[in-house]
């Protein structure tokens, strides 16, 4: 309609003016960064163009000066904060997600530091109130932002990104000691909660929006290694559970229950999203599920500890191989 055409024209004019401003006023050494950030996150209804993303990625590699990395990430976040259009904000988030996945340790450290300082996403109240569809898309955008925020928090807390673990073999979580399991595994489970939350609501605008689809595709693929890390952590927990003290056993039992619940929720999410265009080509794994038959033994052990019985020895069948 006419209003939509006027809006598209005005946003193109804004993008053009912002590129011109970046060209005219940027410091010489940062001019290419400023132009790439504006062009990667403009109002064109498409995902961030790879040409401009590559320019950004070249800027934030570990061999680049820390000041350059900080400036580039700061410009993306500043543009995101100033934007009122869901599309610009979404493209900023996708670019930051790409940085997390591909940018290297220096860039990730910068994002972790920004979050600790309270200067990361802060999009809890973002709304594009242009129309009903943009309001709907804003809801999914906030959910996606919560996932990215949680991902950065987890990386900062456990000092590894499970997404970067090798595809074969076990996760680091298989070798964590009890203290590490108690502290770190719930953080991974919270991140999984954010992943599951990213499954678009039925008949929502997010189901068919192609820019959302690119972000959803990345989130779903990251869930594969995240699930493996949690599953390996649960196997590790089971190996140690019947030697735990009361405090650890109570917490471990809750972690086990959470993992079983999330496994089912993740399977349901996979069933939903695999029918969406964004995920039709994704190769979904068969999930190994926690053994529900162990739950009664675990509960009995905790009950005995609570009554001063000193716990009970678990049958050999409850211990993992």
Give a brief description.
This protein is mostly helical and 321 residues long. The protein has eleven helices and no strands.
Highlighted features:
321 residues; 11 helices; globular; disordered C terminus
Description:
- The chain is mainly α and 321 residues long.
- The protein contains 11 helices and no strands.
- Helix 5 packs parallel to helix 7, helix 7 runs antiparallel to helix 8 and helix 8 packs parallel to helix 10.
- The longest helix is centred in the last third of the chain and has 32 residues.
- It is globular, with a radius of gyration of 23 Å.
- The termini are far apart.
Largest sheet: none
Q: Count the helices. How many? A: 11
Q: What is the beta-strand fraction?
A: under 5%
Tell me the distance between the termini: 64 Å
State the share of residues found in helices, binned by percent.
55-70%
Q: Structural class per helix/strand content?
A: mainly alpha
Q: Which blocks of ≥5 consecutive residues have pLDDT under 50?
A: 315-321
Oligomer description: single chain
Q: Label the overall shape.
A: globular
The averaged pLDDT comes out at 89
Order of helices and strands: HHHHHHHHHHH
Radius of gyration: 23 Å
Total beta strands: 0
């Amino acid at each position: 309609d006419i209003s939509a055409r006027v809006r598209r024209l005005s946003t193109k004019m804004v993008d053009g003016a912002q590129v011109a401003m970046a060209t005219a006023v940027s410091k010489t050494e940062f001019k290419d960064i400023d132009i790439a950030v504006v062009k990667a996150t403009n109002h064109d209804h498409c995902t961030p163009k790879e040409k401009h993303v590559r320019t950004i990625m070249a800027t934030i590699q570990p061999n680049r000066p820390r000041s350059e990395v900080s400036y580039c990430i700061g410009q993306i976040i500043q543009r995101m904060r100033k934007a009122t259009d869901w599309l610009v904000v979404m493209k900023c988030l996708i670019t930051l997600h790409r940085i997390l996945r591909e940018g290297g340790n220096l860039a990730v450290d910068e994002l972790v530091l920004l979050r600790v300082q309270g200067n990361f996403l802060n999009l809890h109240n973002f709304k594009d109130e242009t129309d009903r569809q943009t309001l709907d898309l804003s809801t999914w955008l906030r959910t996606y932002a919560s996932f990215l925020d949680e991902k950065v928090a987890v990386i900062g807390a456990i000092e590894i990104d499970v997404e970067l673990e090798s595809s074969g073999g076990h996760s680091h979580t298989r070798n964590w000691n009890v203290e590490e399991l108690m502290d770190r595994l719930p953080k991974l489970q919270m991140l999984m909660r954010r992943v599951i939350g990213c499954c678009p609501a039925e008949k929502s605008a997010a189901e068919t929006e192609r820019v959302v689809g690119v972000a959803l595709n990345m989130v779903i693929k990251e869930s594969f290694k995240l699930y493996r890390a949690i599953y390996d952590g649960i196997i590790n927990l089971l190996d140690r559970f019947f030697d735990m003290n009361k405090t650890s056993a109570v917490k471990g039992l809750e972690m086990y229950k959470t993992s079983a619940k999330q496994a089912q929720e993740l399977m349901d999410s996979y069933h939903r999203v695999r029918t969406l265009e964004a995920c039709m080509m994704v190769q979904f794994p068969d999930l190994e599920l926690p053994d529900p038959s162990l739950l009664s033994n675990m509960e009995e052990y905790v009950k005995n500890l609570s009554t001063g019985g000193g716990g009970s020895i678990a049958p050999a069948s409850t211990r993992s191989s």
